[in-house]
Write a structure and sequence with these properties.
Blueprint (H helix, E strand, L loop, with lengths): L4 H11 L7 H11 L17
C-alpha cells in the first residue's frame, strides 16, 4: 500500500469500488464540530471515552 494510513484507506476503498475520503475536509469538519476545546484535539485512544 501507500505507507500513509489515510491514503491506504482510500486505496482499499477504491479496490471495493467505493469513493475516496477527502481527508482535509474531514479534518476541517472535525475541528469545527468537535466538542473539544479549540486548543485540544484527540491525541490518544483514551480521548474517545471522555
Amino acid at each position: 500500500m501507500a505507507g500513509f494510513g489515510p491514503q491506504s484507506v482510500n486505496d482499499f476503498l477504491n479496490l471495493l469500488g467505493m469513493s475516496e475520503i477527502d481527508w482535509n475536509t474531514e479534518l476541517d469538519r472535525y475541528e469545527h464540530e468537535s466538542n473539544q476545546p479549540n486548543d485540544r484535539f484527540q491525541s490518544s485512544l483514551s480521548d474517545f471515552n471522555e
